[in-house]
Amino acid sequence: MKQLIGRTRHPIAAGTLIAAVLIASPFAIAGTGDVLREGVRNGTATKETEIIGNMKAKSGKGGYVTRQSNISTGSTAGGGAIYGCRTPAGGTAGGTAPCLRATNLAGGSAFEYSTSAGPAVGLISIGDPAVPNPGAPFITNANGLATGLNADRVDNLHAAQIIAAARTKAGLDADTLDGKDSAAFVMSAEVAGLIPVAVVNIAADGTLRASSHRAPVTGTPVVSHTAGSPFYDVDLPGVKFFFSDDAANCTMADGDSKIVSANSIGGDDLRVRVRTDAGVDTEGALWCAIYNLK
User: Fold this and answer.
1) How far is 20 from 27, CA to CA, in rounded Å?
2) Angstrom distance (rounded) from CA 123 to CA 114
3) Nearest by Cα to 138 from 118, 123, 148
């Protein structure tokens, strides 16, 4: 190149020649050898293209092998990247390749998603996002507590719907359990795969009117209540686990629209609290379907 330029006496001609050489030998796409062209579809690669880096993480910007960013802003701003594939179901475990895979070989985080603003970080959908789909949003083998991840549905049913379905399945009146034997319906109260270990029907004065139970509960539930108190404590013999609102579906047996909440005391008993719609503590007949959600 030096020799070629040295023989060119005109500076303008030399510059033109350099530009021509650079244009004739641009960067090529590995695997196909095609020129990387902007604004059009490039050639289809038939081999895996690897981009390997060796760098340390940096505070702020830096530390990534590649970076894709879109500086467009406003209501019509575009995204950073899109990945598409046509792989069948199964994923890596099934011998197929997902459209996107992130693996941390050192045991740290495999991915992070964040947003500076907005009501949600992102969307996971099956098919049309506007149409409910019975498929699972994701599957995991991690059964530990997911911090900040709350679920208010079981098999797509809210707690109130589970209670209503249990009543319907047992042939119970929509408003009351008075006169009904809970032992007759507790074992048939399975709703959406959720099976209670005990059902209790409690009078306003704390008397246990009816109950039934299954393993691991080993005996008749025992109810403790102090006159005038809004608290009803239920002890399940043979069972010691923490309860929460997710572990007991409680409602008023007299049809009143009182507020009922449940939690654990001492990791053993279930404590149910009854309040009026105005939030004032009160007493009231109630029933609870209790689940072992240890």
Assistant:
1) 14
2) 12
3) 123
Distance CA 38, CA 126 (A): 32
Average pLDDT over residues 263-280: 78
pLDDT of residue 207: 93
Q: How many other C-beta atoms can be found within 10 angstroms of the C-beta atom of residue 272?
A: 25
Cβ–Cβ < 8 Å for 201, 212: no
Please tell me the distance from the alpha carbon of residue 41 to that of residue 62, in angstroms, as a whole number.
29
The dihedrals phi and psi of 28, each to the nearest 5 degrees, come to: -115, 160
What is the DSSP annotation of 206-222?
S-EEEEEE-TT--S--E
Residues 6+ apart with CB under 8 A from 131: none
| pLDDT score of 134 more than 70 | yes
Query: What secondary structure does DSSP assign to 58-105, as a single string?
Result: -SSS---S--------STT---S--------TTTGGGT---S-----T
Give the DSSP letter of residue 287. E
Q: Are 159 and 249 spatial neighbours (Cβ–Cβ below 8 Å)?
A: yes
* Residue located via tokens 């899109």: 82
Q: Helices marked H in the chain — which ranges?
A: 2-6, 11-24, 159-170
Residue 234, amino acid:
V
| Mean predicted lDDT score pLDDT of the chain | 74
In angstroms, rounded to a whole number, what is the distance separating the alpha carbons of residues 112 and 118? Answer: 16
